[in-house]
Each structure stands twice: as C-alpha cells, then as structure tokens.
Input
Amino acid sequence: MNQRIGILTGGGDAPGLNAVIRGVAKTLLLKGVEIFGIEDGFEGLIHNHVRPINFDDVSGIIARGGTILGTSNHGDPTRDLPQAIGNYRKWKFDGLVVIGGDGTLKIAHEFSKKGARIVAVPKTIDNDVAATHVTFGFDSAVTVAGSAIESLHSTADAHRRIMVVEVMGRTAGWIALYAGVAGGADVILIPELSMDLDEVAEYIRERHKTRRFTLVVLAEGVGSALRVGPELQKKTGYEARVTVLGHLQRAGHPTPTDRILSTRFGCGAAELVLRGA
Ligand code: F6P
Output
C-alpha cells in the first residue's frame, strides 16, 4: 500500500531547508509515496494547514533560501498536541519527516510517544544539534560571516580601530570560531569559554604597539557587541566600532556545500521512510 507522509520545517530557518524538502520529496514521489506539506511547522498540523506536494512544487528550489513550507519558532505546540495528533490521523499519515533543531525535535519526540512515526532531520545554522557532526546551514552562515569579517579589515586598518563583530550562536561558538579563523580575526570569544574583558583589553593594548587595528569576533551567547565594543574602547583608549550581522547569516542562498549536505540529508530521510524506520 502507498504511504502518505507529511513533511514540515520548524524553528528558525536555515539555508538548505528547501534542498532537504526537495531531496525527501523527489526520492519518495519516485517510489509512489504521497507527500503532504505542513505549513509553518507544527502550527500547520495544529491548524490543519496541509497541502499535497508534487514534483512541480519542489522543482528549481535547491538553491533557494528560506523554506517553501514556512516555519515558526514561537508558542508551545506541545500544549496543542492532541489537536495535532487528531489532524495527523485525519490525514491518514503513515509518518512525518520533521526538519528542525532542538525545540522542534523535542516536540517531534513527544509526537512519537503518541504513536506517530517520525524521521527527523537535524537543522540549525549554529551547528549545535547533539549527535550530529555538522548541520546544514552552518557552512552558509560561516561563508557570510567569514567574508564580512575579512572585509572589515580594510576599514579597521584605515582608522586604527577595534572592530567588534557579533555573530549568531546563543550556546555554541561554532560560527564565531569558524568564521573568525576563516576571516582572520585577532580575538574570538565563544560561550564555551569564560571571557575576561580586561585580558582582551590588555591583549589589544599590547597588539596596537605594532599593529593598527584589532578584529574581535563575538558569539551572541557571550554578550552583546553593543556593550562589549564601548567597554573595550574605554579600557584600551582605542576607538571601537560594532557590527551585528544578525539574520544576514541565515538569509539568501545556501552555499553549494550546504546544497549537497541538505540533499544528502533529504535523500537519507526518504530512505529511512522507505525502510519503515
Ligand atoms: O538557532 C538559530 C538562530 O539563528 C540562532 O543563532 C539565533 O540566536 C536565533 O536562531 C535567532 O532566532 P530568531 O530568528 O527567532 O530571532
């Protein structure tokens, strides 16, 4: 009997989501599986916003940012679990492919305890999903942040300034570390290690005896660059400027590396569905 599989994307978007959806859908459609797109994460299942997905829907989206299904990362869908389970049954789903990070995967776990069949694809630009070597979206975020950090060198040098660049990562410093190293940063501050601003200021004062500038990269989990920048200026006597990269790190096209990784995740998830996992 043909399977009926729902697919949803939850939490903050990450470049590569569409490539995952495409990988899942094309692999399964070719095997005669019926696919249904659930809009805006688990909220779509609660409110019954579900639509069939065919080849045309997933054609030409491998390089597109965002997610064709929409996503959401607010509210507490576990409260409305009975309603979502009701709709899961109403649509006669044989399983769900859930693409999400920590929060979404926790909800998916609750869902599976109620008898739903779940295949999950780990997602986050932060690269901090447990038991996952690398998540898609991370390479795209590092590419944007690394190139921004690299570009800031010239203006920092021109003005003899300290540049403080804040990147995403509330609990993980992967983006800061990779983008910082790739962009040639002088100081990289990550939430995994304690930070001593006096020590950083001392390093900068020492450095400016022979150099004209310092590039500081800060993961958002360490603190706000809007606070750290002025503090470093006060402590060192050198002018500081702040750049917060924010959602630019999640915006736009996935890198070719992320398109490949996402496609592999998508096809891998589809194979698990076909195997009955
Ligand atoms: O988890 C991904 C992420 O981009 C984090 O790096 C960031 O702290 C957070 O999401 C931002 O969330 P929102 O888009 O809800 O502001």
Q: What stands out?
A: The chain has a mean pLDDT of 96. The radius of gyration is 22 Å. The beta strands are 4-9, 34-38, 50-53, 95-100, 118-122, 162-167, 187-189, 214-219, 240-244.
